[in-house]
Amino acid sequence: MIVYDKPHALLDVPLHYCPGCLHGVVHKLVAEVIDELGIEGKTIGIAPVGCSVMAYDYFACDMIEAAHGRAPAVATGVKRADPTKVVFTYQGDGDLASIGMAETVHAAARNENITVIFINNAIYGMTGGQMAPTSLVGQVTQTSPYGRDPKLCGYPIRVCELLSELEGPEYLERVTVNSIPHIRAAKKAIKKAFMNQIEGKGFSLIEVVSSCPTNWGMTPQNALKWIEEKMLPYYPLGVYKDRSNGEVKK
Amino acid sequence: MSTKQYLFSGFGGQGILFAGKFIAYKGLIEDKQVSWLPSYGPEMRGGTASCSVIVSDEPVGSPIVTYPDVLVAMNLPSLDRFESKVAPGGVIFLDSSLIERKVERTDVTAFYIPATKLAGENGFPTLANMIIVGKILKELGEYNDEGLKAALAKVISAKHADMMEVNRKAIDLGASL
Amino acid sequence: MADKVLMKGNEAIAEAAIKAGCRHYFGYPITPQTEVAAYMAKRMPKIGGTFLQAESEIAAINMVYGVASAGLRVMTSSSSPGISLKGEGISYLAGADLPALVVNVQRGGPGLGGIQPSQSDYFQSTRGGGHGDYHMIVLAPSSVQEMAELTVKAFELADKYRMTAMVLADGTMGQMMEPVSLDFDVTPPPEKPWATTGTEMKRKHNIVNSLSLVPEELEKLNIARFERYEQVKQNETRYEEYMMDDAEIAIAAFGIAARVSKNAVNEARKRGVKVGLIRPITLWPFPEAPFKKAAEHVKQIISVELNMGQMIEDVRLASECKVPVTLCNRVGGMIPSPEQVLDAILKASK
User: Considering only CB atoms, which residues of chain B are within 8 Å of chain C?
Assistant: First the structure.
């Protein structure tokens, strides 16, 4: 009896992520959703620049690697080329909320019929732990060695709240994956984000509050705790916009 | 005569580019080689506008008219700027209802047309440009019914077919001067 | 000439692109190319195509990247400052070997510069413009008819060699109207088995990518790409020669500068000066052969440009410095007059 099997949409190759990194978990959730919806053959994924830059080697569907921050623009092109395809981007906080903020906001404003998976771990992982647009006040990083000082570099950006002010987007939800119940809820949200696209409803973004044990300088377990204690108070979980039932959370 | 170089100039909104386009189309219809090059940019908004039109029996080289054979000046700054550039033996058509001074050059022919005034008096105040076009066609011996009709059909879209008749009236008025 | 219509160069590009099967256009407003976007905005919705005004030139070129990945003919257009912004995306298109068309209707620079015609993006377009070792196929029209024809050619070449092609025009070419016939043959796009159109569960996944972290592999990719470029050089170099057979002086000029120069050549010939014109139509690959040949029988080459002397470097390389190459130029949105070029010819003839 098979108790567990890797999702088909995730290729059987070793991932390059650090021990304790949650990218693997989110990759798996996305792949499971693709499997369950039976859409692998018509799905095109867009990888960002950041730790998940090589996601194109991991997903079994067709994949495109985009320039830093530009995944929503590339996704727009792919979707407009053939609206019957399912298109998702997978982006980190530096990619989506810093260099690519314009692309993010405008894809949302256009209600571009794509699915965005946004990994918020409050740090630039791939380049070795610099301050991200979502790094918390006081957070020590390589480029905020004395802790993030809002007088110097402002406040962390809450992407879901920001986008929820737009008329455009269909669905915005913030989830996390630091516990089994949270992982289950995250999968449900990701599935909804893909369903919305298939049903032609438009732009859905799932923000996944995540960790970076390596650059946070923590054990994986402590990193999960840090999500709970530090990240979630500033980044509350929940649905920020759901046009299908008129819900706009304030 | 193998090549004629026109320079149309005036304020933005006087139909400078349109007049040039009409002359270019008329040339095209008569199997000539033509080019039309407008000034562009912010000066199109109420500042000075100009366009270069070349009508030739041979392929057009540079589309930029620096020394026009025919200058149309619909305001004083245009006359001031371009009078000295007109080729010797060339022709200047100017709107005498907007330009008070006379042409100073003695080696060119000047026609003074109170176009804006006439356009107003005749109920088509926006067509001073086409009155001047009519005069040009007459003086250059290029007034012919067929070419006129065909060129008007090209520059006026079918949506504004009602404009055809009034443009024709303006041209004929100019040609009668 | 009944089949000919008067069109602006910018409009001719847009209509020719549609004729070439391009159904996806992404752009951002900038003078003096805006008519391309305006034309597309009108036409695309009526033929089931996509016109999208992007939030920036950067977004526009990346939307192009997306459609190109999906294997369809796609284009964007801009003017000089906007092309700089697209530089990143153009480099990625090159790195991922994607075919696309980028139109640059040049204006004076650097910086915000002006909006009048210029050829000062010659280096940017022929040397790459973005980061990395790569080339675009660069086509330089010098009439509205060529604006249309070279647009179609650009799509065909882009598909044939999996490269980005650029139509490098200038404000004059974009804004002027000339008779144009749009009655030409179009080679339909080839099969694109590499495109990311979904696996349909029938094949291994396709990946469109420019990342290659193993230097040995990246080196191989670069070398293979340049072998392809060598094919382009051999097969696709284009130029026009005018009165070069007995010429003792040669003019090198492209685009609007070539139009102006032709007037000067005709005038000089009337005065008995044996002068001819070599007009590169592809700026990359640069037509080296006619200059090499000319260097055997002319005593001087004059490069006429709307910049501080950019193409002149290629002319010198192509003529192997066998004869002096001088510059006759205007910049900042100014255009050399036929008289200025004639003066340079007469000076050279003495």
Answer: 21, 24-25, 28-29, 31, 33-38, 40-41, 60-64, 66, 154
